[in-house]
């Protein structure tokens, strides 16, 4: 296994993260099969095709190079699961819900090749709990691979083992992430939201609650937490819109479900302003409206 080479990647989920992780891999000349749910009507691969169109609109365009674009194969879970047998690395990047991830894992697990690595891009769900339905062999090849958004610019990736992950699996994945994708890897423990989100979402929540308490506008807060700190594009609310407000809601729920003994537990409630936007379906950049109309 020491000569493990990733010749083909499957990315499960063509949303904000999955589509960009796929683009990042093909930019490194690694072919990718990009999966999503089958569309209810019309072309069954419509969700993935729309995601690829979205990638083409980004500037600079990650798929501007035709040769790279040709390395992405489109797929759906109804027709193409057999393609998984030819993939050395499977990265799951579907919505941040343990029950939805488990349902998908049941479907894909029988198709995963015996030596392939399976990894979840979860923001902070327990990696051990995600692996609960697997047989021992797949458990040993499963781990968390937490890319940050946007994955083509953010250097950090957290790698999170289960209690059964074989050490060489982490080493092989780390080699791929660093040597092929040019990332910097931090190994994290399987604690709620791992390291970066435990700190990052804590800070964002504290800021949003204080903004609500003192009636601060989105612009003022983003000026204070973004431009004035020299981070022009990453004020608190703009970051929330880029992450996706539903995803942020799921990450906060993980804190509510798992951190009852934390001294700051009272902070981990969903701010009203966030709950209202989620209820309206204004989920940030991916829906074209969130804290900002256009991000
Ligand atoms: P997203 O909402 O943009 O995309 C989610 C994708 O999951 C969609 O393409 C959707 O069709 C698919 N999906 C929804 N329900 C499904 C189901 N029941 N079965 C199969 N597929 C389903 O989400 P995202 O932001 O790309 O997040 C994906 C994963 O990456 C999550 O686990 C999230 O926590 C994690 N993550 C997100 C960010 C971020 O900033 N958005 C950063 C790091 C990690």
TrEMBL record:
Origin: domain of life: Bacteria
Domain 3-hydroxyacyl-CoA dehydrogenase C-terminal: 194-293
Occurrences of domain 3-hydroxyacyl-CoA dehydrogenase NAD binding (ranges): 8-191
Protein name in the entry: 3-hydroxyacyl-CoA dehydrogenase/enoyl-CoA hydratase family protein
Lineage, broadest ranks: Bacteria, Pseudomonadati, Pseudomonadota, Betaproteobacteria, Burkholderiales
Section covered of the full-length record: 1 to 295 of 798
